[in-house]
Write a structure and sequence with these properties.
The structure holds 2 protein chains of 2 kinds. Chain A contains 6 helices and no strands. Chain A is mainly alpha-helical. The longest helix of chain A is centred in the N-terminal third of the chain and has 30 residues, at 21-50. Chain A is elongated and about 50 Å long. Chain B contains 4 helices and 7 strands. A 5-stranded mixed beta sheet of chain B has the order 1-6-5-4-3. Chain B has a two-stranded parallel sheet with strand order 2-7. Classes of the chains: A mainly alpha, B alpha/beta. Chains A and B meet through helix 2 and helix 4 of A and strand 1, helix 1 and helix 2 of B.
Chain lengths: 139, 149
């Protein structure tokens, strides 16, 4: 069984005169997946917090539930407008930051990071921070 | 399997047979790069959609009969669509046994589908002999951060 290959290095990518079609296509897929992950995360958050259903989400958007299910299933036919619509109906918006491609902290292959126990922390932490901020303002 | 890019997150594990490896990494086709990005999404550990017939485009699906424990990862965009078949060795640890272009599989549960499922099981037995694939009652038994649609 093949278990690994050498990952594309930061240096290789940064110094490429011409990016290969493989590299370009890979990062297109990666970006699409990241946006989809963010929207799915927001949906999961609302389901767990407010028991939101796909039917309710569809009603908010004036769409059929099957359409919303398709959107949540895959980013295949998404446009930026789709992202905006879904997030708005969920009560979220994108926080967009373009940053340099990350170089790993260590030259050694990174150990497998632990899987977050139950909930991914990002959105929850943001909410907690916002709540703490509001509480501090009230005080 | 390591992610394509060295800075990527690794929160789930994915192992690939030489056939998957060759198809995805060695051909250097742009479509395979997008499939590679989908496999890295699995490894990254973020939210993924798991679905049945209602969500036929969901990222992953447990194929029937579920007792076999054969799953597919769907890479549907851009066309042509591909399916990566495999089984779980443990929670968040997937063994990809084969890659098939969707249109070659024909209608759902066709002879080709059943063949692909049987092939995945045969591959598993070839690799792990009597060691059974991981099975669970609930989605959480297989995956962290999955959203069932």
């Amino acid at each position: 069984m093949t278990t690994s290959r050498t990952p594309l290095s930061f240096e290789e990518l940064a110094s490429a005169t011409t990016l290969s079609p493989y590299q370009i296509a890979y990062f297109q897929g990666r970006t699409r997946n990241r946006v989809h992950e963010a929207v799915l995360e927001a949906f999961r958050d609302r389901v767990e917090r407010d028991a939101l259903t796909r039917a309710e989400l569809a009603r908010r958007l004036g769409r059929r539930p099957e359409q919303v299910t398709r959107w949540l299933a895959s980013p295949g036919n998404w446009t930026l407008d789709t992202v905006s619509d879904l997030l708005l109906a969920l009560g979220y918006e994108l926080e967009i930051t373009a940053k340099p491609l990350a170089r790993p902290q260590s030259a050694e292959p990174a150990a497998r990071a632990p899987v977050p126990a139950a909930r991914p922390a990002v959105l929850s932490r943001q909410r907690r921070t916002r709540r703490a901020g509001r509480a501090a303002l009230r005080a | 399997m390591r992610p394509f890019f060295e800075g990527a997150r690794e929160r789930r594990e994915l192992y690939a047979t030489p056939w998957v490896h060759e198809e995805v990494f060695e051909t250097q086709k742009a479509r395979m790069a997008q499939l590679h990005a989908d496999l890295d999404r699995f490894i990254g550990g973020g939210s993924i959609a798991v679905g049945g017939r209602a969500a036929k485009d969901a990222f992953m699906k447990l194929l029937e009969p579920s007792r076999d424990g054969v799953w597919e990862i769907r890479s549907i965009d851009p066309k042509p669509s591909f399916r990566v078949f495999g089984l779980f060795a443990e929670r968040d640890c997937f063994v990809a046994t084969s890659v098939q272009e969707r249109k070659l599989l024909g209608a759902f549960d066709s002879l080709q589908w059943r063949r692909a499922r049987r092939h995945a099981l045969a591959q598993w037995r070839g690799l792990f002999a009597t060691w059974p694939p991981h099975r669970g009652e609930h989605l959480d038994d297989y995956l962290t951060n999955a959203v069932e649609l």
